């Protein structure tokens, strides 16, 4: 501001001329002379530094008082609420008019262009605008109204204005107009594109703002009779249930949903190649889906399996591995062992015919011969066989006395086998043998039997003793008759007795000589 009688303005300068503090006119380029009789004032503007003038309160008043004079040199540009104006000169950004502001552009400047942007709907500034703000000194003052964010390749971001979602952002660098400080940014990791399926809040946002997410997520839908297999770069990652819909993040990795029709019962069986992938999943997401969606079973050698679907027996399974989809069906798998097996019927308390209480343990060997008959006719074939053996054992024992049972246990085994074998054969079970392992008597009965046995053994011992004594006496009688008429034999017997007597004698004193010993020691009349 200065007072002079001469004012020289270059081609890029303009001035507001005041005389006696009253606006007079706008001065253009050139040399201007003034009479020095009254105070003059000129406010000079350099168009190389600013393409216009910020319209303050004083300038607003002057423009209202002198509209024609200002209209010749200045063009008024205004921005409304939630709107900014981008000023370009020769296709270069030179100024940004903030929200709810007015700005006056110099008409003398060539190739001026004004572009307005609604920052309530689109707060993200174009990339070239961000570049101009960072490199142009004249635009640095608008940085206080902006915020910058950088998103990595594995990130997405949700942009909220006053807690309302307004934009979904891909990776990259962004500058936002945030004059009112109402913007918030929520970053989301998409290193796993399938993770959106487990975020209920995010799913809700997607449903509410489908247009915003259209370029960022892929939608999928499965019919009521379809299973969806999710492949990422041709690797199975997830299983989708029938009658569902959802979405996944789009990324550089190829996502594909392949659908399988499971309308018919026959289509519930899973192809063996796919079943191998599902049996031992490597990832937790797929593993969790498999446990909810797939029924696995493995039939070992010498076993058979039965597939029940919705209460109906559909198939008998031989040895091998099988998998079915669980969806829309109630699937049950039963296994049956076809090998020879043993069954114990222990601790059976039974009264004999003569009312003696016995505890009997029975063992039986058996085998399933007709698996389908067993599965269709018996709810629990082992329980059925156990009950039949138990009843047969009670029936046989109750019709025999204790002595009969103790006398021949094999008869008991045969009778039980005869009763049960025909019954169980009608239900596909072959009973090969039965055997009583133990017959346990009560304490008092055991003592009585021990006394009986003891008495019997004593009587037997006495009988044997008397028989032996009789036999010995008879032998002596026969010996005596033989020696009666044979002195030589008698003498030999005497010597035998003498030898036996003296065999245990250490010292022997003989009186009378050898003849006396031989002739007088033993005398028989």
Helix and strand topology:
Blueprint (H helix, E strand, L loop, with lengths): L5 E4 L3 E7 L2 E6 L2 E4 L6 E7 L5 E3 L2 H9 L1 H7 E6 L3 E7 L2 E6 L3 E6 L5 E7 L5 E2 L1 H9 L10 E6 L3 E7 L2 E6 L2 E6 L5 E7 L10 H9 L1 H4 L3 E5 L4 E7 L2 E6 L4 E5 L5 E7 L10 H8 L4 H10 E6 L3 E7 L2 E6 L2 E6 L5 E7 L3 E11 L5 E12 L2 H7 L3 H17 L4 H6 L1 H17 L3 E12 L2 H42 L2 H16 L10 H8 L5
Antiparallel strand pairs: 1-4, 2-3, 2-5, 6-10, 7-10, 8-9, 8-11, 12-16, 13-16, 14-15, 14-17, 18-21, 19-20, 19-22, 23-26, 24-25, 24-27, 28-29, 29-30
Helix pairs in contact: 1-2, 9-11
Structural features:
Tetrahydropterin Synthase, Chain A; 525 residues; 3-stranded antiparallel sheet; alpha+beta; 14 helices; 30 strands
